[in-house]
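Methods — Computational structure assignment.
A single polypeptide chain was analysed. Its primary sequence is given first, followed by the predicted tertiary structure written as structure tokens.
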Amino acid sequence: MMGHIDSYYAATAKGVSEHPRLQGEQTADVCIVGAGFTGLSAALHLAEQGHSVVLLDAERVGWGASGRNGGQVCQGHNMDHDELSDSLGKDGADRLWQLSLESVDLVKALIAKHKIDCDLKSGVLHVANKAGHAKEMQASVRYKQDRLRYNAIRYVDRQEVADLLGTDHYHGGEYWQDAAHLHPLNYALGLANACTQAGVAIFEQSRVTEIQKNAAGVVVKTAQGHVSAASVVLACNGYLEKLEPRIAGKIMPINNFILATEPLPDTLAHKINRDDVAVADSRFVINYFKLSADNRLLWGGGENYTRRFPSDIKQFVRKHMLEFYPELQDVQIDYGWGGTLAITLNRMPHFARLDQHTWVAQGYSGHGVALATLGGKLLAEAIGGQSERFETFTQLPTRTFPGGTLLRWPGLVAGMLYYALRDRL
């Protein structure tokens, strides 16, 4: 797939459409920067409201983390409900919980409405690497069932996890029955085709170099053209770089890596993942895996915090996979790739209106498929004049990383090394 990194997702892409570079002048009600899940969802929902929309991407649709991730679509947030209640009160925490449920339903609804072929499957299993983590998960499941009246989740004990995953490494887990997993690049490409049908003008290979403000709104400039718009949405996430200094320090770009094996025999695939669910463990630097539509094991593991990827991504990730499944020692690794996501200090999304014309949604911290799709919808609502749901997220403060963009890297590396050490103890 021209213009995309080599990955299993790019090799199995469907519904690919070419979009031109921006040349000359365009006008729109809203200009969106970034054609990942946030930008695509915002563009689609704005167009359905009747707004004219121009969507720009520096590379290709879904080129960034939206087209490279583990494809898990799960309810909940990285902060638990009690923590959110302490910050926002019970009503605010309840609203965020309900929005997390809506985010998964929204992904499923968009796939159904626009007939997006993206290998949608059901079920996400979070598993405990330590006995203490299992106890925390058991309490968390009870809390959701008793306090939140949410019953599409259940605790699975150590033996059941072993039966499901063919390994005794894990101590228990929580099974999210209404969660899902999918082929993320094909989901992004499907959203892009829906955008085009709704009237969105998409321009690829059109890197934004500057955003100027004027009395009428903004002028968004690229090397060969510009867009005049009343509003601009920054949906760049881990690829924001220096485009908007006011928000750059709110996020930390980190790199995560995935491999894809050769197709596995049915018996081996069934042993490793009996019920064909997506799996994520409880390590701080997590492992996550699932089966592809053609029985490959897609395994995500390992991170780094530099601007460079490992020279051999396949081997970098493979050692994490073999720690849990040594029986895969002789299985061929066909693909290895990485992507850059953005985390925040509290691991909650950063939504903001920076000024009269500028909106941002970023920092999904590993929950990007569902929450970024929802973020786009909430941006569209807010730009259309209904900002209450968007403001539910803005009321949760997003702190700037200590030292801002200059010193955040050394601090993060020190912190991540500490937690990586705890993972091994």
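Note: The chain has a mean pLDDT of 94.
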